Amino acid sequence: MNDTNPPKAGAREWIGLAVLALPSLLVAIDLFVLLLALPALSADLAPTNNEQLWILDVYGFLLAGFMITMGTLGDRIGKRRLLLIGAVGFVAASVLAAYSTSPEMLIAARALLGIAGAALGPTMLGLIGTMFQDPRQRTTAIGVWMVCMLGGIALGPVVGGVMLEHFWWGSVFLLGVPAMVLLLVLGPILLPSGGGDGRSAGRLDLASVGLSLAAILPGIYGLKELARNGWEAVPLAALAFGVAMGVVFVRRQRRLADPLLDLRLFANRALTTALVSMLINTMLPGATMVLLTQFLQLVEGLSPQDAALALIPAALAGIVSVQVAPVAARRVRPAYLIAAGMTVAATGLVVITQSETAVGLIVGFALINFGAGPLITLGTNIVIGAAPPEKAGSAASVSQVSNEFGFALGIATMGSLAAAVYRADVADTLPAGAPAVARDTLAGAAAVVPQLPGPLGDAVLASARAGFTSGLHAVAAVSAVLLVGVAVAALVLLRQVPPVGAPLPAPENARAGSEQEAVL
After folding, report:
1. DSSP per-residue codes, 402-422
2. Could you tell me if 439 and 426 are in contact, meaning their C-beta atoms sit under 8 angstroms apart?
């Protein structure tokens, strides 16, 4: 990695990238359409409300919980080997989910999908880092991989609508199976092994695996439940337990010769700045997206599928941005591109604060996605490039775990802010005789309106919609301010990172050199 002219990737590597990108595209579609399939599977399997929540959430819980373990395991046994094992598990779990005959069976299948999915993401990014050692090619390759993820989100509503119109609900789980089979056939031919001698990555510490799960799973659960049910004792206790286990996990990693997560990676200022920035970026616009989706359905009256289709312009804006960012980064320092992007995203949030119609909100969200492109692409490249090859899977897993935590943290904190503003707003505007449930959420108000006399129902719904819009505006305003802070931090803390492919500055010391070489 000290070569000034790292080897260029050839046709084999680019075809290998396609083998990695296609499953990412179809898995993104597959995960997105589950929301559309939920009514049909609920009618067939009749899950309780609690079981329905577990069907939706258990995948994300286990995906986040096992990512760090899988990243390190891939560094130890070989990223390609773990990727193929994960693909086999994903195919088996997808078939099990598609033909589930009970809620419990579907929950178990979704849990297995989460564990298999945790083996896919970090190993794919780790292999991209191995295949594309040239900084410019690596940035472009990451952009292509990101485009496939965003493309799956954009295509999800269309593909899901067609599938559910012509086939049974289980068909949505089978969308990714053909691509996984293709990966199993072509992966051994086109993909490098990605390490796996077990020496450089070290042994797998099972106690650390348990501690990482004990930290991440309760943490994600607590954040999601706080967002869903407010400040209750059980989710607060789960979150506190997760934080405590996280502290124990960190202390153990510092003592081990072969830690599950090498904390020395975080001594790299560029890597740490990129991770924190991506966490905040996922946290703030992610919460705004959830509120925007509810606005389109409960305020504008769109169906779930139409609401999803309305978000396609934002997905397309993100696709354009992640493709433009690597090209621009060849001449412009990442700090300037990321700061400019965050400024555009903050502008989109300001547009949302001034909008009360779907058109204004969609335009604002498109600006958010466009502005996020440089951080998503260049930030991921900084994280992957900062790690030595034998730690690439571990670094990739940390990047993806930060995204999972960012989204959950955003829903919990920004969701609580939106709920507080809603309750304060409707307290002064709800008419006398309005049901108590209308004072808590817009969804609750919308559910009881059909049972109310016409004029009262109209007044309740108007008040609830206005309160929800006020909450959305408040979240967007706070998020805009914080994203401006991310822009300033990027300018200050990433200013030494050169344009992609440019020579790196001399390291301050031997350790800094080993951590900073090939950041870009």
Report:
1. HHHHHHHHHHHHHHHHHHHHH
2. yes
Taking each helix axis from N to C terminus, what angle separates 454-493 and 269-294, rounded to the nearest 10 degrees? 170
Token pair 């070290």 is found at 202
Show the 3-state SS of 332-379. CCHHHHHHHHHHHHHHHHHHHHCCCCHHHHHHHHHHHHHHHHHHHHHH
CA–CA distance, 457 with 397 (Å, rounded to integer): 49
* 194 Rama sector, left if φ>0, alpha if ψ -120 to 50, beta otherwise: left
If we measure between CA atoms, which residue out of 373, 385, 387 comes closest to residue 500?
A: 385
Of residues 368, 371, 364, the one with CA closest to residue 340: 371
Q: CA dist 332 to 63, 483, 502, Å?
A: 35, 20, 10
Tens of pLDDT along the chain (520 residues)? 444 567 787 888 898 888 888 777 776 776 666 766 777 787 888 887 678 778 877 887 788 788 888 888 887 888 889 999 999 999 999 999 999 999 899 999 988 988 888 888 788 888 887 888 787 888 888 888 888 877 777 677 677 777 777 888 888 888 878 888 888 998 898 888 866 554 445 577 888 888 988 888 888 788 777 766 667 888 899 889 999 999 999 999 888 887 887 788 788 888 888 888 988 888 887 778 878 888 888 888 887 677 777 888 888 898 899 889 888 988 899 999 999 999 999 999 999 999 988 899 999 999 999 999 899 888 888 887 777 766 767 777 777 777 777 777 777 778 778 888 888 888 888 887 778 778 877 877 887 878 888 788 888 888 889 999 999 999 999 999 999 999 999 999 998 888 876 554 444 443 434 444 434 4
Backbone angles phi, psi at 217, to 5 degrees: -60, -50
Contact 226, 232 (CB under 8 A): yes
Contact predicate 142/381, CB 8 Å:
yes
What predicted TM-score, i.e. pTM, was given to this entire model? 0.77
Q: Assign residue 125 a region (left: φ > 0; alpha: ψ between -120 and 50; beta: otherwise).
A: alpha
Radius of gyration, alpha carbons of the chain: 23
CA–CA gap between residue 183 and residue 192 (Å, rounded): 13
The separation between CA 271 and the C-alpha centre of its own chain, rounded to angstroms, equals 18
